[in-house]
Amino acid sequence: MNMILFIATTFFTSSVVAPCASFSPSPYNLNVPKHSKCTTSTGGKTALHSTNNIHNLDPSSILDPIIQHPATQALSVEIRPRSRLKRSHQHLFTSNNTNNSTTALFDELGLIACQTGVVCRKEFLETYAAAACIQAKFPNSKRMADLAAGHGLLSWFLLALDNYDYDVPGDNNKNANLPKSKDSRRPRTVICVDRRMPRSADAIAAAMIDRYPELEDRWSYVQSDLSSIVPHPSCLLTSVHACGTLSDALIETTIGAGCPLALVPCCHTVKERKGYRPHLLSGMVAEEVVALVEERKKEREDYAKHEAVADVVDEVRCRTLRNAGYVVEEVMLPEAFTARNRLLLAEPITAAASTVAGTDGNRSGEIVNDKSRPFFERRAKGEPMHPPPESIQIPLADDPESIAQCHAVSGRARAATRMVEQIPRHFSLTIAISIWLTREKGSSSDSNFDVTAETLQNVATKCCGEIEMQEIQCTVEAFGEVNVQSATGRRSQLYKFKYTKMDGTSISGDGRGAAKAIHGMVRERIIGTFGDLIR
Predict the structure, then answer these.
(1) Which phi and psi (to 5°) does residue 326 adopt?
(2) 474, 464 in Cβ contact below 8 A?
(3) Tens of pLDDT, residues 470-513
């Protein structure tokens, strides 16, 4: 414990900012500049050699050709930013010189986006800008995870950039002078994780695979909560517009596993009722962050509250990462693309990362067990941890076994199967019928008659057999105790008719309609056999 406190104190006191950053001093020493065109800031430690070659970006050389592109100027995001790219916009991406390696891939991806008809112009531009900077910062990262992926546009851009990067001959290759790792020619794989895979993800995937069939086996999409992921230092965690405290959760996950991170935060908040709590490594509490926001707002009359909140919250996040032993670089994406334009690029210093993640810094390191690492635990002492999901684990390590496991749980069909397994009663087609066991007084006979679960099962089985081309079975069982009507003494019983496939699995789609048709026949057959006894 003393050693842990010593490490934490060392991290807290050693964070400095690169000399290029201009700022006004604050009592909290959070020295991240406000809304500069391009900012790069790193921690005060000496960066050791790493696989991804820690180096500062020159965003202007990456993004200026895109900003000056005719399509960018024609598709001004200030006018109908949510308007989707359509086939009528394709001419904007075909009138340029295709020999220009800087914009050739941008044109190609623009044509694909226009073909799908599901990509907003704002999203296309900001996602490509983020992907281009991530590729320039981490050119040799061969395993990436697009978290809270939406329709997965970022993942496809990262795959396309890796696929294209080394195909550009000669000096035009922007990474030609960077040292390459021994497996830099190995193709990249990307996994998307989100709670819901929208239909637009299918349209984008189909268009990208049609153009780049070689990318199909390198991409996967798992529908799951992010609590299911098992992060690993060999995988870069990425997320564009991670809303609210999701950005803080990803930073916590990053620190706990010693992963690199590329993050565009969004929807900043300092409200505790919305779940905001600074990480322990920031050395601050929520009240201090709120006070700093108010102080920052007084510096300038035109300083909008949302800008002050965004700047301060991201400053706290950068400080947290640096105190955890990360080199943090900030890149401001073009404001013409998005107002939430701060891209945080964080990479663990090798020596610190080994201490943080409990690995030797390579892909053979073991998976981190966060439960045994209270140093990085943000939850209050005694507060219960969320239990991991029982049905699925998503390993993000860059090894064949983990990648194969991700493919095994990928896709909408497998997600539907998992959901049925987790909450089968929600999806099972079970219809209850209450049936009188005795006739009404004054009828021809008021004695008991043969209405049992067995006789009802025979009726249901015959009805199922009369429906051709539908492999549906019905199971009948009595539910609860016999009910006795207090006024008349008449007895009744509730029976449950459960319809499933012949193998016992739940019915979906058109099968549910067929099962309901069978149930209508069952009701008519009961009335025809026993009389009008259905309550």
Answers:
(1) -110, 145
(2) yes
(3) 688 899 999 988 998 888 888 899 999 998 888 877 777 677 88
